[in-house]
Specification:
Belongs to the cytochrome c oxidase subunit 2 family. The chain is an alpha/beta fold and about 260 residues long. It is about 35% helix and about 25% strand. The protein has two domains: about 80 residues, Helix Hairpins (Orthogonal Bundle), CATH 1.10.287.90; about 140 residues, Cupredoxins -  blue copper proteins (Immunoglobulin-like), CATH 2.60.40.420. Strands 1, 5, 7, 8, 10 and 11 form a six-stranded mixed sheet that branches.
Length: about 260
């Protein structure tokens, strides 16, 4: 009840792209890929509703007209060439319409534009390690830090339970970013719904994805691959900032090395 009576709590949550209680639908998209995923979902839902209404109408019509009180003698029709052609071609046509935007989205997700920044993500049991290697001349000079979930007892006012971390990933907006993902022990999955990113972290393998932040904000995600006892306690927090603020953050990190 303390959080419910404090307006600062709602103000802080409103600025974050995080799941909310009884939420229905997606989080607000913060990248072109996330926007494309939601648009494709809405398009498919349209066809789904049309098919559902038609099937329910046909079922109710059949139950009404072929009830035993209205039609005591069952029909002897066992084959209809025209009907079979229609119910084969129509679903195929619908699937082809759905395939066009889905393939376009799939190829756009695999396309890697010449990145301005590379972020390496390493999954551990049970935390994440992030490495910015573009700003170093040697392995010892890289910006590397671990990101652990903040325990519930250490949360401050406005912070989200099971979602806050001690070290956030800071990325610039309006910048093409390449993300390389791997794991040090078992399978993990780096997923941030508002960014439309969900990529498996596989030990001994480098998976690659890209992201382009369209706006500033704090974007929350979680490990989406069951990885052991504390699987639910390794959240992801990405903070999108302006380029000047990002460069200032990088400068401070380099000074701390």
């Amino acid at each position: 009840m303390f959080f419910l009576s404090n307006p600062l709590f709602f103000f802080s949550v409103a600025l974050c792209d995080a799941p909310q209680a009884w939420q229905f639908g997606f989080q607000d998209p913060a990248s072109p890929i996330a926007q494309g995923i939601q648009d494709l979902h809405n398009d498919i839902c349209f066809f789904m509703i049309v098919v559902l209404v038609f099937v329910v109408w046909m079922l109710l019509r059949t139950l009404w007209h072929f009830h035993w009180t209205k039609n005591p003698v069952p029909s002897k029709i066992i084959h209809g060439t025209f009907l079979e052609i229609v119910w084969t071609i129509t679903p195929s046509f619908i699937l082809m319409i759905i395939a066009v935007p889905s393939f376009a989205l799939l190829y756009s997700m695999d396309e890697i534009v010449d990145p301005s920044l590379t972020l390496k993500v390493i999954g551990h049991q049970w935390y994440w390690t992030y490495e910015y290697s573009d700003y170093s001349l040697s392995d010892d000079g890289s910006i590397v830090f671990d990101s652990y979930m903040i325990p519930e007892d250490d949360l401050e006012l406005g912070q989200l339970r099971l979602l806050e971390v001690d070290n956030r990933v800071v990325l610039p907006v309006h910048t093409h970013i390449r993300i390389i993902i791997t794991a040090a022990d078992v399978l993990h999955s780096w997923a941030v719904p508002a960014l439309g990113v969900k990529c498996d972290a596989v030990p001994g393998r480098l998976n690659q994805t890209s992201v382009f932040l369209k706006r500033e904000g704090v974007f929350y995600g979680q490990c989406s691959e069951i990885c052991g006892a504390n699987h639910g306690f390794m959240p992801i927090v990405v903070e999108g900032v302006q380029l000047d603020d990002y460069l200032h953050w990088v400068s401070n990190k380099l000074e701390d090395i």
